[in-house]
Design brief:
By secondary structure, this protein is an alpha/beta fold. It has helices at 2-27, 70-78, 96-104, 120-124, 129-145, 170-190, 218-251; strands at 39-42, 47-54, 83-90, 113-117, 151-155, 195-198. It has a single domain, classed as Rossmann fold (3-Layer(aba) Sandwich).
């Protein structure tokens, strides 16, 4: 019933939504992807090969350097536990379908953990939930087969109902759709033993966001990186214990 009401509301509000979308696009600041390394190795400890894929938020738009961005903060945190061999493959404007197509042309290097940060551009296109679910499933399959992912860490769809840049009712419509896609992502991940989900219920007030009111600021990136790093470390620790138990059983 909620979807039906949303569709009816969108139809009734269509002229206003189009006008607001055009206005937001004109006013929005086009922030660049920050400079900095997009691959490297750091830390001491067991080897951990990490790939981060996604859209402008994964690319760090909103801060001045990659070190302040998601990749810089996640790798720095993981380096306290692992020797991290990492790579960042992202592009501003990427949808899930764009990411799939781009990754299909990449080399076949394998990774232990792959972090996925996508969704905003699928929401703004009002991608239907069923199609979103199929694309997420296709992406997960690609990451397993082509990149050998042992653990896929999906970041939740950003709650666009809290984006300061967006006026109502556009904010309301995109907020409702972002919740719908996020719920679909949660359900998908719950059925995948090699996947984990990291919620993005973070503060999105103007002070926490970038100056464009649309991308994360340093504060959001820091909190986001904390959650992703914790999810990776927890999962790796469980996998290590499981492997240790299997070795002991074989010895016996």
């Amino acid at each position: 019933m909620g979807l039906v009401l949303d569709v009816v509301a969108r139809t009734a509000l269509l002229p206003v939504l189009i006008a607001q979308a055009v206005s937001v696009r004109k006013k929005a600041m086009k922030l660049p992807e920050p400079p900095g390394a997009r691959r490297g190795q750091l830390g001491d400890g067991p080897d951990l090969k990490l790939l981060i894929v996604g859209d402008s938020s994964a690319a760090g738009v909103g801060v001045e350097t990659q070190q302040e961005a998601l990749s810089g903060q996640v790798t720095t945190q993981l380096a306290g536990t692992y020797c991290v061999d990492w790579c960042l493959v992202t592009r501003t404007g990427f949808t899930t379908r764009d990411t799939i197509r781009h990754l299909q042309g990449q080399n076949d290097k394998t990774y232990d953990v792959i972090v996925v940060a996508l969704g905003v551009n699928d929401v703004t296109r009002l991608l239907p939930l069923g199609l979103w679910r199929k694309q997420v499933e296709q992406l997960a399959g690609l990451l397993r087969v082509q990149f050998g992912a042992q653990h896929i860490c999906f970041s939740g769809v950003p709650p666009m109902g809290g984006f300061p840049l967006l006026p109502n009712p556009l904010r309301w419509v995109l907020g409702r759709h972002s919740i719908r896609l996020d719920q679909g992502l949660r359900r998908f991940v719950a059925a995948q033993p090699d996947c984990s989900y990291v919620a993005l219920d973070l503060p999105l007030d103007q002070s926490a966001m970038a100056i464009d009111g649309f991308h994360p600021g340093a504060q959001v990136y820091a909190a986001w990186a904390d959650r992703i790093s914790a999810a990776i470390i927890e999962r790796q620790s469980k996998d290590d214990l499981q492997r240790s138990g299997e070795i002991v059983s074989q010895v016996r």
